[in-house]
Amino acid sequence: MPWLELKIDCTPEEVERLSDALSEAGAAAVTWQDAADQPLFEPPPGETPLWACTRVVALFEDDADIETAVADVGRILGEPLRDWRVDPLEDRDWTRAWMDGFQPMRFGERLWICPSWHNPPEPEAVNILLDPGLAFGTGTHPTTALCLEWLDAQARTGTLAGASVLDYGCGSGVLAIAAALLGAEQVFAVDNDPQALLATRANAAANGVESRIEVAAPEALPARQFDVLVANILAGPLIELAARFAELARPGASFALSGILDSQAEAVSAAYASWFELDPPAARGEWIRLEGHRK
User: Closest by alpha carbon to 112, among 123, 101, 98, 99?
Assistant: First the structure.
């Protein structure tokens, strides 16, 4: 059936209280959107940042009395609701529309990510079955794409065959699963977000590689070295982890780092120069991937 969208712009501090008031006033659903075209990059695990100007969107049935709902929200908040507007929302199959937004994606020459409701476009390729979920990393973000393309290239050179791989900051587990499907013998998927660890275990099982992927928090990582290291996190944590990664990568190990803006590349490169030989960076938009080998 058709709906009405009540839209209010507010500050991050006002979001939760306003959302609760809208729900109490009869909204069928409440969502948050960017009201000022301010990108939010991958947040630290466990955090949910908001835009400086956040748009709260409340969904009401098309026969709802919006004026009354707005008055109710003002009463709940203790002050009149300012600067609101209402837009009609067309009647459509929203579940189908959401599913249609996620199509199979190829990375490199033979690596695909396919939602469960799609048949793989190339059944003979390396296909990761992965649905959008709570944990970060389904291939749609440039940083994830950069790492997936790198793993595909490593497989084509034989680097992953029988290798031990560390995926540090595993998110959904997509990089760990890709490494296993591309030939790695053992993969450690590490994250400090319990939700990411749950998602990685579930996704590894769905792709039949759970026996080759160990999932653990950083403090549970065993004292050993790896043949391949990949980390798609953020520039700040990458700089802090440089010495730790030098301990975890065996001499000659291949590595790739992403989650880095081009303006941050110099600082991250400097942090790793003592232990790692760096190749020219790869870029996708404003994001880059640093790669090379352990000295």
Answer: 123
Same structural domain, 34 and 57: yes
pTM: 0.70
Nearest-10 Cα torsion for 260, 13, 29, 37: -40
> What are all long-range contacts of 105-109, with beta carbons under 8 Å and residues at least 24 apart?
105/139, 105/140, 105/145, 107/139, 107/145, 107/148, 107/149, 107/152, 108/148, 108/149, 108/151, 108/152, 108/153, 108/156, 109/152, 109/156
pLDDT band at 98 (very low <50, low <70, confident <90, very high): low
Q: Are residues 269 and 129 in the same domain?
A: yes
Domain that holds residue 54: 3-91
Closest CA to 291 of 222, 225, 232, 219: 232
Please tell me the distance from the alpha carbon of residue 106 to that of residue 113, in angstroms, as a whole number: 7
CATH number, domain containing residue 189 = 3.40.50.150
**Average per-residue pLDDT for the chain:** 87
**Residue 77 shares a structural domain with residue 208:** no
pLDDT at 97: 53
